Amino acid sequence: MKKFVKILFICLAVWAIWTWVPVTERISLDLLEGEGANVKIVLITDLHSCFYGKGQKSLLRMVDKENPDIVMLGGDFFDDRLADENAKIAAEALAKKYPCYYVTGNHEYWSGRVDEMRTYLRSVGVTVLQGDCDSVILNGQSVDVCGIDDPSGLSGQMWREQLEQAYAQTDESHLRILLTHRPEKVDTYAEYDFDLILAGHAHAGQFRIPWINRGILAPDQGLMAKYVNGVYELSNGSIMEVSRGLARESTPLPRFFNHPEIVALEIH
Asked: What are the start-end ranges of the H helices in 30-171?
């Protein structure tokens, strides 16, 4: 029995270490109309100031390999317990190469330093969205990049006002993207005609059930969480992509069937 327990422990340890390795999830979506080149987006969520090699080289190499037109930072880029250094290194390096957009997550609010974090990101060239919409041209395509704060730092009414304010600035002839931390608010998102919604937060339920793509337990979704990983079509036809995120040493439990990831989206 002791030998069996030892073997089981070793197997679980090896599995936990293996799922420590980050991957790139590549997704192709047909969302553009008319002529023009494709748009490449890299989505980074839930870094939680985690370590990805000296100078964050492991993470930065993954992004560079995708050669994105734009990088989206979908909240919890900083952590409320870990030092900011790793997040700052990544932010500075990314902003030097790519247009970068950021929205808050719950952990930035929990840190009590959310304003300081926003100010820092703006100082290094990251665009911070708070109920805003920025119209940009990417490869000849008109794209509206909208973003809202995490609701943990706002009243329900203020959060809704940010969403309405951002949507009001969009043009229906453009590709309309919403950057948000929370995936579970699908009923609200479905009231607006965003083409693409980018989210994180769920960490894929930490223990992900791959065959049915559910999470054992995800924040604000509970047991057998549904919106944890990959592409979902909402009731209004909007597409939502939920990243598993990059949190590693910031979490008390290891990830199972759940590699940390960045997401590379090729929009056609």
From this structure: 57-66, 85-97, 106-110, 114-123, 156-168
Does residue 146 contact residue 129 with C-beta atoms inside 8 Å?
A: yes
For residue 107, which of 47, 184, 183 has the smallest C-alpha distance? 47
DSSP letter at 12 equals: H
How many angstroms separate the CA atoms of 4 and 224, rounded?
Answer: 30
217 pairs with which residues across the strands? Answer: 223
Domain boundaries in the chain? 25-267
Question: pLDDT means per 10 residues in the chain (268 residues)?
Answer: 63 62 96 85 98 97 98 97 97 98 97 98 98 95 97 95 98 97 97 98 85 87 92 98 94 83 97
The pTM of the whole model exceeds 0.90 = yes
> Is residue 129 within 8 Å of 102, Cβ to Cβ?
yes
Query: Of the CATH numbers 3.40.50.1970, 3.90.180.10, 3.40.50.620, 3.60.21.10, which one belongs to the domain with range 25-267?
Result: 3.60.21.10
Q: How far is CA 203 from the centre of its chain?
A: 10
∠ Cα 147 38 22 (to 5°): 65
Give the Cα separation of 75 and 265 in Å (integer). 18
Burial of 170: CB neighbours in 10 Å, binned 0-12, 13-18, 19+: buried
Give the bridge partners for 147, in sequence order. Answer: 132, 179
Name the nearest CA neighbour of 263 among 191, 179, 189: 179
User: Cα(128)–Cα(22) distance, rounded to whole angstroms?
Assistant: 26
> Which of 242, 176, 246, 186 has its CA nearest to residue 214?
242
Task: Give the distance from CA 118 to its chain's centroid.
Answer: 17
